[in-house]
Structures are given as structure tokens and as C-alpha cells.
Amino acid sequence: MVTACPACSTVPLPQGRAVDQPTHVLHLPDIHCGACIATVERALTALPVVQQARVNLTLKRVMIVAPGAEDATLIEALARAGHRADRLDAGRLGPRDVTARDLLTRIGVAGFAMMNVMLLSVAIWSGAAGATAQVFHLISAAIAIPAVGFAAQPFFASAITALRHGRMNMDVPISLAIILASGASLANAFGFSDRANWFDAALALTFFLLIGRYLDRAGRAAARSAAAELAALEAPQAVLIEGAQERIVAAETLQPGSLIRLRPGDRLPADGTIITGRTDLDRSALTGESVPQPAGPGDEVTAGETCLTGALTVRVDRAGRDTALARMADLVATAETQRTRHTGIADRAARIYAPLVHVLAAATFVGWLMLSGDGWRALDIAISVLVITCPCALGLAVPAVSTVATARLFRAGILVKSATALERLCQIDTVAFDKTGTLTTGLVTLGGNPDPETLSIAAGLAQASRHPVSQAIVAAADARGIAPAPVTDTTEYPGCGVQGMLAGQRVRLGRAGWIKGTDTSDAAVWLSVAGQPPTPLMTSEALRDDAIPTVRALHDAGYDMALLSGDAPRPVARMAQATGIGTALAQLTPALKVDWVRDRTAQGAHVLMVGDGLNDTGCLASAHAGISPGTALDAARSASDVVLIGGGLMGVPRALATARAAMGRMRQNIGLAVLYNVVSVPLAMSGHASPLIAALAMSLSSLTVTLNALRRFR
What we know:
714 residues, Calcium-transporting ATPase, cytoplasmic transduction domain A, flat, alpha+beta
């Protein structure tokens, strides 16, 4: 167990200092305080090859400038100093987010200018007049115009882009309000008008909108960067066992079947199976589970897990880009590609709200000009309408909640890939599950005692497929010492089976409907040899530990459920009975699964598909929303809106419950924004809103929806 350093309570916590372009980046999971930082930096700079080393305590990371140095040398030096370190692949961390820093700079400029201008405005509103007021106006202009010109650039750029493409977005009225408020105030400062000074309103508008934009970006970037950092945490080297010898090799050179040695504190460089030894595994990097899990001979382990106690001998099953850690990196890349089949709530609202704001402001200007004949007075009130009806509250209503919800789901091991996933998950009323690999563990075993010839032919066909049943057949033949038959010209048909040629005859291995056998047993797969009756092969598979609690939670929440499987009717019926799923459909091809989803959709249902295989991709794409486990095939993960990177099926009801709560919160925020405008717009249009009141009211509306978004979901 790692404990805090004695100096933790007395040494300040530096958050990182500037460093030249680093050549090495190491992760330091155990550092706690300033004393740790000093120890790490001293240990590294003591090496002749190290030119510079700087620790960032917040990120638990050290940036090192050491051209030509090996990671192993740096890690060994830190180990001698008592600190554990892991290599970070800086290439997978992605480029530094300069946009967030740019927004922070603009927020600082707008906030500083706003405070100074508001102090001057207080003096003016307190009774300063004549030359004194004129001087205050000119000083305000000197502060505000450059500040607005710099800080509001993100809104101006977005508005110009939208107008160039012939459309409106929320940045158009925002930009117009800022420009008109600044322009009218500038005219007042130079004596062209004796109306109100709106510099403080323009700066307050810019300041609070920049804060909202930064929070939205920071929340989304946090989820992506957290996942990217997990993917970047990989063991660079492995201890390869070759007979009685051991040697250190690069992890990417490992091959399936290789034996590797792990000692306490080592991170697994590949996926594999424990051959000898027992340990406690830290699996938090992949699953979020903080409690170490015991593991021993026969247990599967994955890259990214850390061996905490005993030494292990592990047989490599998957290495390089096939490991669980590499799949995590692929998920991050996939998460940046958003599917937009449906338009988000905020976009729909913007299309209505943005033009309405301009119509109200124009109507106010015309009305007051006709009533008073005073153009400056009419412009003042029109600007007041633009400011007080600024759509910032509505603009924050949806993104703020979406950011909070997706970040909380990510921390629970649920990666939301699509920008509109929460909206669609909220509408779900029917959940359809695949069986093999989704409700079951995917570990299939071959039952019965098929004759050697049958098993040999079946294994010859099964070698061409990665389906769990095919892998079980190959494993059974290998266990009995039966060589696979020399089947040629094999072709796999997703959802059906495998076909090939043996001694000039066509042979098939697959489901009963495709083979055209008679289903008189519980067989999930049949073998067909030309000229012979089909032979059934018995299989069995284990139910996931969380399958029944997941179905029960969904049932209690009121969802209809269905089990869609290509398996035989009897195993499917048994699975449905064991889990409590009312509708169970067997022997479905991928096309029939899609047809079922489309039929339910035509009847008004909103179907969520949960699947992991190639034969589920059609359903995942055509359903109202799709969820797949992190262990699913690449095609299934790409077609899904949500990926359960933690692996547990309980992520399904959690994602649905969070989506419903989030959409309810979004509607609350939209209601608050609408209520604010119902009250404030008449005040502004009637000329009762002063510049300071308009800016404060607008800011208060934004703050209200942001705080409401941050409230904990039930």
C-alpha cells in the first residue's frame, strides 16, 4: 500500500513548470507532494544524459529532456529513488489543447476590463455629469473596445462563418449585441449621444459567454483526454522466457504463444493467460475498479493491468494492436467521429430562437422610433432587448447538462460517442439483446462426444472463423489430439456459418436454418457434408454475472425487452427464461434482426440494440440507439452510440437512467431560460432595463442554468 509522504502537509503543491520540448514523458502514479517532486527531479537530473526534468503534480507526470536516453534507464533511476513510473506514449496523448488556453486568456481579459468599466459606470450612474462623465466614458472606451475586440473573437468568427453559409446560429445575435452595444457606447463617449453607456453590458456579455464556452469544451476534453491517457499507458518492454533464459524485449515484438515473466509492480504488456503464480491485479486502468482482484493459473489478464503482489508466468494471447489497451485507443479515435442522424435539441432551439431575437430587437427599434422620434433612444432600447434576451442561457442549457452527464458516465466506464446519444437514449422504450458474447460470457464449450471424423471436419471449417462456437470446436479438437481436416476455399457468412471444400465435396458448419437441418435437439451449430444428413454439435455457454441484475433493473424501469439470437430455439428459450426476458427470437440472420428492429420502429417503438458481434452491426446502426461492450468487435463498436469500456452490462440501465435524468435537466434549463425571457423581454422592450440591470440579468440567467446542470443526478 502506498502512503502519503510525511511532507505532504507542509510542502506546497506546485502544479508544473515550463519545460523544453520533452523527449520522454513518464507517468508517476504514487507522487503526493512537493517533496516527491523534488526527489523525482533530483533523481533524474543526477543522470548525465538528462538535461531537464519537470514534474506536474496535477497530471502526475514528469517531462524529461534527455536525447538518446532509454526509458528503462529513467524508470530504473526513479525506482532506486523509491518512485514507480510508467512510460507514456506522448503520440497517443494527442496535441496540446491550445484552444482551452486561448479561451482562458480571453476570459481573463474580458473579466479584468469588465470590472474596471463597471467601477467607472458606478460613478456615472451615481451622478457624475458633464466633463467628468465624458472623461469616464472615454476611459471606458479605451478599456472596453480593445478588450471586446480581442475577447469576443470566437463569437465573431463563428457568426461570420454561419452567415457565409447562409444560416443562423446563436453567435449571430450575440455578436450583433456586442457590436451594437460597443458602437452605441462609443458614440456616447465621443458626444454623439447622451444616452446610456453599454460598455459594461458588452463586456459582461462577452465574459460570461466565454466562461460557458470554456466549461463546455473543458468537460468534453476531459473525457477524451482521460481515455487517451489510459491508452497511452502501456508497458514498453517485457521479460520474455526462452527455455531457461530470460531476456528483455520490446512489448510490440511479442507473439501469441510467447511466455513472459511479471514481477510485483510490473504492468502487463499484452493480453494473456496466467500459467503459474498468483497475484492481486490492479485493473483500474481499464475497468475503473479500484479494489485489486485476485488472479491465478488459468485466469485471463489484459494489457494495462498491474501485477501488485506475486510473480507470474503469462502466456501471451494477444499483443500489439490487438490488446485491450490498444482497443481503448481505438475507442478514443472513434469517439471523435460523431454520428448526427438526429438534430440536437440546442440546434433546433437555435434555429427558432436566433431569428426571433433579431425580430424582437428590430420591432422594438421601429416601435420606439415611431413613438418617440428619438433614434438614439430607440437604439438604446433595441440593444437592451438584444442583451437581455441574449440566448446564452438557452445556449448553455443543453451543452452544460450534456457535458456533466457524459463526464459522469465516462467515470463510470461508459463512453458516449455520439453528440445526440443522450437525446435518443432518453426516448428508448424497448431494449433488444444479442445472446452470445453479450448476455453470455462468450466462452463457449463443445459438449457431447462427437466422433473424430465429424470433429476433424468441423475444426477444419471452424479455423476460418473467430466466432466463439468456432473457437470452442477448434479447442475441443486440439484437446482430443484430433487434427483439423484440410478444408479449402473457406468462406464465412456472418450470422450463418462457414462453407468450404473437402476432397471435392462441399462442407458447411453453421446454424440449422442455413444448413437446412431439422432442429430436433438443443444444437446451436450443425455440420453438413454433401450426401450425408446434417450432424448436430452440442454447445454450452455461461451467463454473465450481471445479466440477470441488468434485465431486472430494466424491467423495473418499465422497458420492454427482447432477445435476438441466431442460436437454436431451445438454448435461446432457456436463456430468456433464466434472465426473465419475455420475447425471445431464435435462428435470426443479421437481416432478420434488422427487419425486427424496423418493424418495431414502424409500430412506434424506440429500440435500443445491445450487441457485440459482426452480425449485430446492422441492428446497432438501424436501431434508435446502439450500445456495445468494450470487448466487442471493431465494427460493432464503430456502429454504436455508447461503448461500455468498463465491460459490465449494468452500464445499460445506468446509461438509460442518466440519459432520462439529463434530458429532464435539459428541459428544466430550457424552461428556466424561457421563463427568464418571458419576464425580462417585456421589461426591456418597455424601456425599463438599464444597461447594468440588463447585463446582470443576462449573467444571472446563465449562472442559474449552469448551477442547475451541475446538480447531482438522482
